[in-house]
Write a structure and sequence with these properties.
CATH topology of the largest domain: Hexokinase, domain 1
Protein name: Glucokinase
Family: Belongs to the bacterial glucokinase family.
Number of helices: 12
CATH architecture of the largest domain: 3-Layer(aba) Sandwich
EC number: 2.7.1.2
Shape: globular
Keywords: Kinase, Transferase
InterPro entries: ATPase_NBD, Bacterial_glucokinase, Glucokinase
Length: about 350
């Protein structure tokens, strides 16, 4: 038995073919491509399937896809791609028995209980409580989800919280909002807390300091990692100012989301951009903005905050969810005892069942 799993983001799409070998799932094929290479999710999946043998394609029983957009009734409109997809239509077009579309943050949350402690960098320590947990992911876009530990597994509440109105907290941030609103009208937090958002903040600070972005050099790659590098090397005052501003806005946003969810179980910061930014998050810009909640500042100081440094948490999460649901479905069909939904799965090349 084989399953197709994927993490379909606004910048990159990652696909794997998993094969069941008794109590393990082995990765048979893997592909990482830029999303912009394709004009639809169907085209991306078709390209991957064409790389497989006829027998491999015939043995795929399910496809589980983490998608960067709100999912409703098996349909998704991608937020940062001009794509729309429907599970039923993908099944027909690609001759796949079953296709499941899952919000990418919901899928990522399923990896968090299994991430090794060494891949969780503490930003703020606090008591480990059993309350709700908050996931904030910063990459091409800004994603938010809330998850709870329950008997037999976890429960995840997906959201589109990254698109709420940006609320400036200083004169500098208000001027930045004013600048962005001229071009976008509505300025959401995602307009700032994303790869493109970091570039907007950097350009704003270059204008304030009367300097050219990247000293006038034209870039052909994603500029966000370079901004982080220039700030880390202290070679660019505008990059330093942009990172400080970004950290303050992220701290305020994460604090707001933590209050809304009452995330006493902890806040988890993930995403490709945050893996580059986490060294900056321990400074006062992020922490003070997170704490600055008036009469509830004392509560904010007790909430644990972790930076997730796992390379592919989205793929890990969708794989765990797919295997768990596949196992539960098999047990229901055979009438056997249903396995616990938090069944241990070994990360890496093999996903091991208990």
């Amino acid at each position: 038995m084989q399953m197709l799993i994927g993490d379909i983001g606004g910048t990159r799409l990652r696909l794997r073919l998993l094969e069941s070998t008794g109590r393990e799932w082995q990765i048979r094929h893997e592909s990482i491509r830029r999303s912009e290479e394709f004009d639809s999710l169907e085209a991306a999946l078709r390209s991957f399937l064409e790389e497989l043998s006829r027998s491999e394609r015939a043995n795929i029983v399910e496809a589980w896809l983490a998608v960067a957009g709100p999912v409703s009734n098996g349909r998704v409109r991608f937020t940062n791609l001009p794509w729309e997809s429907e599970a039923r239509l993908l099944e027909t077009a690609l001759k796949l028995p079953r296709v499941h579309l899952i919000n990418d943050l919901e899928a990522l949350a399923h990896a968090l209980p299994h991430i090794p402690q060494r891949q969780l960098i503490p930003i703020q320590k606090g008591p480990q409580e059993s309350g709700p947990r908050l996931l904030v992911s910063v990459g091409t876009g800004l994603g938010v989800a809330i998850w709870f530990v329950e008997a037999g597994g976890i429960r995840v509440l997906a959201s589109e919280g990254g698109h709420i109105d940006f609320a400036s907290q200083s004169r500098e941030q208000h001027a930045l909002w004013k600048s962005l609103s001229k071009y976008h009208g509505h300025v959401s937090y995602e307009r700032l807390l994303s790869g493109s958002g970091l570039m907007e903040i950097y350009k704003y600070h270059c204008e304030q300091q009367s300097c050219m972005p990247f000293n006038g050099h034209t870039l052909t790659e994603d500029p966000a990692p370079l901004i982080c590098q220039r700030a880390e090397n202290r070679e660019d005052k505008a990059a330093n100012a942009a990172i400080c501003c970004f950290s303050e806005i992220l701290g305020a946003f994460a604090g707001n989301a933590a209050l809304i969810s009452l995330a006493t179980g902890g806040v988890y910061l993930a995403g490709g951009l945050l893996r580059r930014l986490h060294p900056f998050l321990s400074d006062h810009h992020f922490i003070q903005a997170f704490h600055r909640k008036g009469r509830l500042q004392a509560l904010m100081q007790t909430i644990p905050i972790h930076a997730v440094t796992t390379p592919e948490p989205g793929l890990e999460g969708i794989a765990r969810l797919a295997i768990r649901e596949s196992l539960a479905g098999s047990e229901r069909n055979t009438g056997g005892p249903e396995q616990p939904s938090n069944a241990g799965i070994h990360a890496g090349a093999y996903y091991r069942l208990p």
